[in-house]
Specification:
The chain is an alpha/beta fold. It is built from 32 helices and 21 strands. Helix content is about 45%, strand content about 10%. Helix 18 links the parallel strand 15 and strand 16.
Length: about 800
Amino acid sequence: MPIAPTAEQQAAREVFAGGRDLALVAGAGTGKTSTLILMGQSTRKRGLYVAFNKAIAEDAKKRFGRNVECRTAHSLAFQSVGRRYGERINRSARLPSWQTARRLGIHRDLPVNSSRITVQHQARLVTGMVRRFCYTTDRQLMARHLEHVNGLDAAGQDFLARELLPYAAKAWEDLQDPAGELRFEHDHYMKMWALSAPVLRADFVLLDEAQDTNPVLEEVFLSQSAQRVCVGDPAQQIYAWRAAKDVMTGFPAEHLELTQSFRFGPAIAAAANRWLGHAESAMRLAGCGPMGSKIGPAARVDAVLCRSNADAMREVIGFLDDGVPVALAGGGAALERIALAAMELRAGQRTSHPELFLFSSWAEVQEYVEQDSAGQDLKAIVQLVDAHGPEEILAAVQRLAPEEHAAVTVSTAHKAKGREWDTVRIAGGFEAPPVDEDGAQLPLTLPEARLAYVAVTRARLHLDTSGLDWLEGYEQALADGPGSGGHRLIEFSLTRQLKHRGSPISRFLAEHLPDARSVVGDYAARLPRLPYPVQPVDVAHPDFAALGHAVDYLLRLSLGRELGGAVNLGVASLHPRHELPGAPAMPVRAALHSAGVQLLDLVGRHLESGGTYLDDEALSRLCFVAAFFEDVYRCGRLRRYSLLARADEHITVQRLTEAAPRYVVDDLAAQMRLAEEPFRKLRALPEKERVCGPVFAGSADIGGADADFILGGLLLDCKATTRPRQLGEAEVYQLAGYLLLDYDDRYRIDQVGLYLSRQGHLITWPVGEFLRQLGTATKLPVLRRQLREFLHAEAITSRSEPGP
């Protein structure tokens, strides 16, 4: 007998039946697939359900009606493009690295710093570059598609990436030829399909697991003119580290939720809701499953969930020592490979392991994970090998049982996603965040909070949260620290407040301007025809943050204005009389401060000359260096990887500008060429109407707020992003915050907008239309007065709060 749909499922079906796009946020165990089937049954239109993998697609075929085709993205791509390469896929399934190297023309080892990279490893890295390119929405191969190579510093990474880029381009050219010779993979035809701008043959498209969508599929889905429905749970987005994207959060559509979980009862739902709060999700689950579900220590469990492979292996060894048949989700091949590599390195031999091939001994690996922050991902597994020895790890892998014959399954939380067991214990590796240098509790990162949420929602009947016992103490420390209750967050700048849902600005905007998604949708509707963004191609790690500041400075200078107060303050803070965390020795600080003064003097002379004193290259280099002085002011410290951190007591502004890489000059020149037309009329405005870095009457009521530009009444924020689709509610609320903080209407703002500097594109809204789309009919002067009164009340409350 069919189960009647819940009110939430019925609401989703009605939105779908109305022909509207929909983002359906479905919590763990809330029946998302059943809801999609209801949608398909409500119409005779032709639909397409796109599943995460083949097994899900095959299962869905049995449940959907005939009008809905159930496919994976790869099967769609194969039907359209991949079948032309069918013979290549079979022929090149096994191609040794040395043959790949020969066909690419790689004939000799490559010296990088004190290491040599063999032709075989060069070939492997090149094929990896192409694979990473195929996971992205980029339209050309770039140096930054090279994977991180353990044991190389940043300069070595850049050198290696530049050297291998021509071979990667040659490989991609070969792969696009049906008669080519290199190993052909399924992701290759998937990328070719996406680049062809395919139109899916359906009246509606249902995208499952939308919070962890391959960027290639994301681009295809968002470009469809058919009705679109994406379903998933942004709080379960745990694959961002491998380039997966959350399509849902910024999707310009109606947003609904499924919150009734039929997997577990109220006790486990309450635990899940605590983690949803830390994952910054507004959704809260209702436990409508087994009412007897409970939380507490469990003597016997069906599954143990861990943070990492190393933590999982420790659990496996413990069960084997106790004589318990144990399975490891996904098998032990990865651990077996690392153990064999450790044995080779301990014996003084080189290893072909892709993460360790540059090291000549195990001692080098140990030193790397202890001394280099880039090696932290390896640290846990190295400590596991040191604690148990590679021989014990190999023996443990050999003794693993198949899951169907095991008494318990051990899994990482990542591999547990999409699965469930009756009794689950959360084990090691999940750790509370540290405190800062002042002893204040730092918050959980979103990826860690989301991973814990996934872990606690795998149990149906009994959840043992042993590995998360620190949560209560962490929450208490967070409540006792600065910003507790949202009060001292008032001391944060506008940008920082918008990162916290509980901050005063965030709460005010959410209440009074609740419909940011409408503006995001309007913004997204103007993006499909944008040109491909200009960006550095031949460098592995472009400094996009500094480039973003630098193009902002260049635009200010083109408008006849100075770099801005933040640069001046950054220069001043380097004076030896000021305290500055991370600062070098006094002679170096004095030299840096002097160089900063020289920089400001050169820019001043350039402005006085009417823009003729410095050529474009010199100006670009100065602006890039200026970004690091501003960073000192914004962060309150000299960061370890800052360009300024490399200085000695002989540093000058000339030496700093010479240190700016060549790609900086080329990239800024490209962005400024794009700005020529959009800024032509803005540069012609009267001088008083060209305001750069405006500060508002309300800026003093929070920790500061300074916008990029107000030009002839247009409040404009410059965004130097390569992925304009990723801009969303935060950027909309940033514009709204600036607009409302202009209490006294000093700047006569009548339009707001975003300038996309890498596309040369300007998107604007009249203020009245902007506020209407944000969901308010309240007049701007009233909103400004309400915000001022609200912030003043928050300040009084904050001052009355006792210190930590």
